[in-house]
C-alpha cells in the first residue's frame, strides 16, 4: 500500500489527497460483482471505490465542531428517513414542519444532509461554510471515521440506525434493480449484486459497542422500533442532538408534525422525490419504496431467510448483540 489512511496529511488541497488516495486505492483488493459500482476492501470492509478518495479527504481535513451531529448507517437501513427526521427536528425553529416553504418540500433528504465521504471530494469548504449546528451523514464504519469525530474532546455526536439484515438485503436488491432500470435486478456480466460497506454485522457491532461504552456520544436506533413508535423516537433524537422539545412545542404538536412531514408516504409524494437524479445519476424515486419492516418475507423463502439468520447468528455469537428488536 502506498500510504495508510492515517499517513495522509492535511493542507495538501484536493489534488494532493486524491493523488495519494488513488495510489492507495489501486493496491486494495477489488470486487467487481457489485452493482452499481466496484468495491475495494479497506480496513476489513468492502467500500465503494468511488467513495474512497472522500474517505481519505475526510480523515485528512475534516474538522468537527462540538455541535456537529453525524448520522451514520449501513446502506438501505433507513438512511433517507433518518436524514429527514433529524433535519426537520434540528432545524424546526428556522423551518417549522408545517411551513409550505420547508426545505424538505423542495429538496430531497440527501440534498439537505450531505454525505461526509463524498462531499469533501467536491470542495474543501463544503462543510466549513455551513452554520452550526451542522448535520452530516456517513455510511462509513465506525473504525474508519475521522479520529476527530470519534474523540470525546470534539463534542461531536453520532446517531446510528440499524435494521433487520433480511430487509437490508432485499431493499438493496430492489434499490439497485430500480436505480439501474433493469427488470430482474442488476446486470453486471451475469454476476449477482453484493452489499457494499459490509460485512453488515461488523458495521453494526462497531457502532453498537460504542453506544454501550459512550451513550452520550453514540445514539443507537433500531428501524423496527422507529416504525412502531416514531414520535417517541423523534423525542429521543431531539434530546440527544441537544434540542429537546419544549412543553409549548409538545402542546402545539410539533413532534407529530415532524413525523407527518417526514413520513414515507409524504416524502414519496413530493415532486422533488418523484423526479430527477442525484450526483451519481441514481433516480431520486429509487430511495422511496415501502419503508416498512418485515417486507423481506415477500421476497425470501423461509429456507433463504433461515440460512441468512444462521450466518448472522454465527457471526454475532458471544457479542451480546441481537438484531431481534430490543437486543439482549
Automatic annotation (TrEMBL):
Single GO MF annotation: sulfotransferase activity
GO CC annotation:
cytoplasm
One GO process term, biological-process aspect: sulfation
Write down the Pfam families for this protein, in alphabetical order.
Sulfotransfer_1
Query: What sections of the protein cross the membrane?
Result: none
Q: Does the keyword Transferase apply?
A: yes
Q: Does the keyword Heme apply?
A: no
**EC number(s) recorded for this UniProt protein:** 2.8.2.-
Q: Which keywords are on file for this protein? A: Transferase
Supply the Gene3D superfamilies for this chain. Answer: P-loop containing nucleotide triphosphate hydrolases (3.40.50.300)
Q: Where is the Sulfotransferase domain?
A: 66-319
State the PANTHER family in the record.
SULFOTRANSFERASE SULT
Q: What is stated as this protein's family in its record?
A: Belongs to the sulfotransferase 1 family.
Q: Know the name of this protein?
A: Sulfotransferase
Identify the species of origin.
Oryza sativa subsp. japonica (Rice)
Q: Which lineage?
A: Eukaryota, Viridiplantae, Streptophyta, Embryophyta, Tracheophyta
